[in-house]
């Protein structure tokens, strides 16, 4: 029986099969008429598959996408043979019908009601099929292998040269550091030798200052005694003259 209400695409559901992982596929329903069409999607294994937008009403010349999700398989398959099937039922409804008018009785047989059905089988496909490698690419890889070996040898030689250069620079820097350390040690020894000489000079200067201070103090005391003696002599002579 040909479908005059809906166009179903594709004609079979190809679902990638992968162990312990959910997979999905889509199908599209298109209303080919100028009237409202109600549809319903059913499966022979409802525990294994979930259908999004499993039922609805399509306005004239409109379409919708149906998503079918297979639950994660719990066993490995030796082949991809599958016996599961889907059924799409469709029926014409009144103009301007909405989901409020959708009832299960629409898909029960009744006089004057035409229910169209479209069956789809499920086909399992490999989740990650291996990509074939052209022979030309294999030949190019074989031709490129000697070049890769030459490049690897070049890289090795470059790495050896770099290692020698680094070691030479390291030795030079070590020599510079050692020479700088030698100069600093010599300067420290010279400073240590000059330090006692400077201290001795300072001590000698301080001793000379002390001696000068003492000599000035002694001279001052002698002059003071002399002045006192002279003044006393003058006073005594003056007193004698007054008595006479």
UniProtKB/TrEMBL annotation:
The record's listing under InterPro entries reads: Ig-like_fold, MSP_dom, PapD-like_sf, VAP
Cite the entry's keywords alphabetically: Membrane, Transmembrane, Transmembrane helix
Q: Which family does it belong to?
A: Belongs to the VAMP-associated protein (VAP) (TC 9.B.17) family.
Q: Which residues cross the membrane?
A: 219-239
GO biological-process terms attached to the record: endoplasmic reticulum membrane organization; endoplasmic reticulum-plasma membrane tethering
What does UniProt give as GO cellular component? Answer: endoplasmic reticulum membrane; plasma membrane
Q: Which residues form the MSP domain?
A: 5-125
Name by which UniProt lists this protein: MSP domain-containing protein
Comp. bias (Acidic residues): 134-144
Region feature (Disordered): 129-151
């Amino acid at each position: 029986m040909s479908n005059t209400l809906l166009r179903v695409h594709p004609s079979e559901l190809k679902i990638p099969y992968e162990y312990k992982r959910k997979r999905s596929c889509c199908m599209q329903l298109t209303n080919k008429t100028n009237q409202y069409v109600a549809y319903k999607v059913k499966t022979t294994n409802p525990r294994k598959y979930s259908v999004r937008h499993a039922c609805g009403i399509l306005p004239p010349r409109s379409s919708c996408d149906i998503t079918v999700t297979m639950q994660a398989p719990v066993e490995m398959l030796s082949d991809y043979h599958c016996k599961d099937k889907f059924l799409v039922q469709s029926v014409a409804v009144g103009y301007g019908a909405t989901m409020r008018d959708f009832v299960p009785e629409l898909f029960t047989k009744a006089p004057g009601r035409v229910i169209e059905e479209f069956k789809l089988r499920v086909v399992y496909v490999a989740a990650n099929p291996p990509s074939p490698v052209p022979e030309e690419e294999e030949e190019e890889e074989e031709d490129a292998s000697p070049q890769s070996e030459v490049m690897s040898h070049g890289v090795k030689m470059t790495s050896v040269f770099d290692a020698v250069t680094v070691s030479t620079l390291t030795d030079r820097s070590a020599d510079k550091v050692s020479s700088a350390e030698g100069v600093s040690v010599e300067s420290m020894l010279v400073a240590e030798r000059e330090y006692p000489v400077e201290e001795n000079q300072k001590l000698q200067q301080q001793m000379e200052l002390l001696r000068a201070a003492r000599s000035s103090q002694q001279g001052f005391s002698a002059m003071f005694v002399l002045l006192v003696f002279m003044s006393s002599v003058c006073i005594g002579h003056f007193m004698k003259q007054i008595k006479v």
